[in-house]
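Class prep. Sample record?

___
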Amino acid sequence: MPARVPEKIAFLDGELSGLKSRIGGQGNAVQWEKLRNLQEIRDDYAASLERAKQRAAEDEA
């Protein structure tokens, strides 16, 4: 499993939540771009974790 990915995902979830609450529906372009970038990074980590779990399950079978 990739190193500390669950912790990274949890951290990014917190950052995303905080950013969403700060900008609400009134954010500027920079804030929205940061939100999109953080979400993409979080999604990449989640996909990586899911692939690692699948590989581990296949190795056990």
Remarks:
- The radius of gyration is 15 Å.
- Helices lie at 5-23, 29-60.
